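Encode chain A's predicted structure.
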Amino acid sequence: NYRLSALIHTIAAGAAVTLTATNASTYPFGGQGFYCDNLSGTLTVNNPILPTFSTTKDNVGGLVGSMTGKAKLNVNGNITINVGTSGSTAGGFVGKMEDGATLKISGSTITVQQVSAAIVNGSCVGTLVGEATNPTFTFENASIAAGTTTGYHLNGRLVGGLVGKLTYSNVAPLSVLPIVGLTLQGHNCGGLFGELYNGTAFSLSYESETALADVTFSGYDSGSGGGLVGYYRSTAAGASFSAANVRTNLIVNNQRFTMVGGFIANADKASGSGDTSFTFENAKASLTSGSTADCLGGFIGTVGGGGNTYVTMTGCTVENCAPSANISNLGGM
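Encoded structure for chain A:
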């Protein structure tokens, strides 16, 4: 029953460590993060190789469990992600990033075999991070690829292709990577973010057409499945979401989501006072659904109340909106 612990338990603020470690052990890993459980300083990992995970911990990450303060994680080289916990929240790289932490990935093909966590309230799963608040992501020659798996690549409750649950209020745009070919199962699922709590002008905009998410979902009762975001909520007056020259392709298997959208499934009421807005420009959505959703839309499944909500669309196309089951409320846009 022996399980490996982290190579380093804690890297304190101000400390900087570089690791190039080859895992030759046959024992499974039972901690939070294989290279470091708790990171507050700077950690650089070259050519990472992960062990088999067999842990019951919360906030589990392939490399780092939790990042606090102004922590920085630099990852260089290809990596295969196969991370699972019977606890709550898991990320392929980091379990949980607190406000202000930075993740930089360079020269890496990220092959996702699986990231999974217990299906309990508040449990978050993402290829990069389970749960993150105002992170900084930097990518240099990095991409995400689907590994071979007999189950789901990402499996939990709040499940995102990049981040399970993201809270964001930074002025600077968040860098993202396209998600292509991954299969997700969860309560709230998004091609990029399972849940997004937005307090800024959140923008996913490109100069030319970019296929940002091409994903397949299965869900649980009463959840939300969106091509980019499963569940969205604005947290400040005037918060907005925009996407330009973005393409999504979403396939929903025959399990029930209450709300399905080609870009956003559930745009819930603003918790901050005032208006909120959504702007789509030269965006394209393709949606094939076997879900018996209450609400299904080519771009947005449903928009909740609470303040005024404005949706602006310019040069947008729903290339496919093909439900294969009865939908209570079906809209092309």
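Residues 186 and 219 are 5 Å apart (CA to CA).
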